[in-house]
Write a structure and sequence with these properties.
Blueprint: H1 2-17, E1 27-38, H2 50-59, E2 65-69, E3 74-78, E4 83-97, H3 100-112, H4 118-134, H5 142-154, H6 158-172, H7 175-187, H8 193-213, H9 217-233, H10 237-248, H11 254-267, E5 271-277, E6 284-289, E7 304-306, E8 312-316, E9 319-323, E10 327-331, E11 336-338, E12 344-346, E13 354-358, H12 373-378
Antiparallel strand pairs: 1-4, 2-3, 2-4, 5-6, 6-9, 7-10, 8-9, 10-13, 11-12
Helix pairs in contact: 1-2, 4-6, 4-8, 5-6, 6-7, 7-8, 7-9, 8-9, 9-10, 10-11
């Protein structure tokens, strides 16, 4: 009984220490099934779970491995791996340290991903902690694992390729392999919607882990290029735009710019159309937006340059309307809009001002299109202001 009480106290202490967690875990496990790491025992723990055994070992700097006996729910932390013996029902794991350069940059990289929520980063961290258990491959060399993943990919068996790469990620924690883990997760074909969402969530979290570990811009851009389609599948179009904008800011790449242009066209704040009433002597022209405008406490006059001082500007939900005899106006690119959650935002800075015109009959509407990146360049504008 005393032994069980001590075990509970031991885990409670380490649980309290782990409450304040960084985005990147300091240590990880590489799991081998049906193997006993014999000898080099530290204090054993009984009547426990493998998850608790893992947490205790990860939290103890002296613990470099553990063996968990699934038959007796017993945990044997190890100071080293002295000898390996076959043992059915045993789950053993080596504990490896995270690259100190990654840990030193982790807070900065997490700050880059400010468009993600705390729960997003927590889910990515949990994936990093658990990936070794999900893809146990400790009995293989990394090159063997990578060859197996390549073979499955060549056969278009993306599910098992993803599992093999998961084992490689557990062994190396390499950002490029995290990127591949995300890519293969997105490549898996299934008609099951629940599985589709799980694959997208796995890819999203893997791409976040890749970014957090990326020590150079090209790797981080590759991570964001996998994060973007994962976010789109999760119906997070605005975050997709933000991920691609972050990617574009880390280096000029044509594929990134093309993806960002396409994402803004679908999910960015933009003018989506116009309508005009030219039947009366004082025509009315309205610009329609993709999102609601800020309602209370906002004067839109500074954001609309009028061709006639007698024109009247009115904002109505997703529209700005101009009433007057000869309607001529230019919409400023920084129009306030209400984004998800009710916060105040402005229009996408990649878009320039937009001109609108309307006259009494015959009506003529001459919009100057929102010059986002691709259009700006075409018009010669100056650019943007057996699985393991």
């Amino acid at each position: 009984m005393l032994r069980r009480v001590l075990s509970v106290v031991f885990f409670a202490v380490f649980a309290a220490q782990g409450m304040a967690q960084d985005a990147v875990p300091e240590r990880r496990e590489v799991v081998t099934r049906d193997t006993d790491f014999y000898g080099a025992d530290l204090q054993p723990l009984f009547d426990t779970t493998r998850a608790a055994c893992r947490s205790a070992c990860l939290a103890d700097p002296a613990c470099r491995a553990y063996t968990f006996n699934t038959r007796k729910n017993a945990c044997f932390p190890k100071s080293d791996v002295a000898e390996m013996k076959p043992y059915e029902g045993a789950i053993s794991a080596r504990i490896l340290d995270t690259d100190p350069r990654v840990l030193a940059e982790a807070d900065k990289r997490a700050a880059d991903l400010s468009f993600l929520s705390a729960s997003d980063l927590e889910a990515a961290r949990e994936q990093a902690v658990e990936i070794g258990g999900h893809h146990p491959g400790g009995q293989y060399q990394v090159l063997e694992i990578l060859r197996a993943a390549q073979d499955r990919t060549a056969e278009a068996d993306y599910l098992n390729a993803m599992r093999w790469i998961g084992a490689a990620v557990a062994a190396t924690d390499a950002p490029d392999q995290w990127v591949e883990y995300a890519r293969l997760s997105l490549a898996i074909e299934t008609d099951n919607r629940s599985e589709q969402r799980r694959n997208a969530e796995r890819a999203f979290r893997a791409s976040a882990n890749a970014y957090l570990r990326g020590l150079n811009a090209p790797v981080r851009v590759n991570a964001l290029m996998q994060m973007a389609p994962a976010l789109e599948r999760l119906e997070r179009g605005r975050d997709m735009v933000r991920a691609l904008r972050l990617a574009e800011g880390q280096g000029a790449r044509a594929d990134v710019t093309a993806a960002l242009d396409a994402a803004i066209a679908k999910y960015g704040f933009r003018v989506t159309g116009h309508r005009a009433d030219n039947e009366s002597a004082r025509p009315r022209i309205c610009a329609e937006f993709s999102e609601p405008l800020v309602k209370a406490g906002t004067d839109y006059a500074p954001f609309v340059r009028l061709g006639d001082a007698g024109l009247v500007v009115q904002a109505e939900d997703r529209e700005i309307c101009i009433d007057g005899g000869r309607a001529w106006a230019t919409l400023h690119r920084d129009l306030p809009r209400r984004a998800a959650g009710g916060e105040r935002r402005t229009a996408d800075p990649r878009c320039r001002d937009r001109a609108l015109r309307a006259r009494p009959q015959p009506v003529r509407i001459v919009p100057r299109p929102c010059l986002c990146a691709a259009q700006s360049r075409r018009r010669g504008a100056a650019g943007r202001d057996g699985q393991p």
